[in-house]
Specification:
By secondary structure, the protein is mainly alpha-helical. It has 2 helices and no strands.
Length: 81
Amino acid sequence: MGIAWGSFGIVSLVSLAAGVAVVVLLAVALVGLSARAKQPVGGPTDGAKPGLSPAAGTAVAAVCLLAVVAIVGYGLYVIVS
């Protein structure tokens, strides 16, 4: 009985990529949701340009969270089947 190192490497790379993708998508979703804040963290005089509009931020967050749900759902489907 031997180990299929090629398959092991592919599974490891796909797992790493999926894990990084989930973390990045969640981070972008949180940035999008932060656009709904009434006052930026730095205050009105910090010199930063305004970020996304609240509607655009919510849309970005929704798309990112749906992508996360799709990735996790597909992973569970692959495990169960």
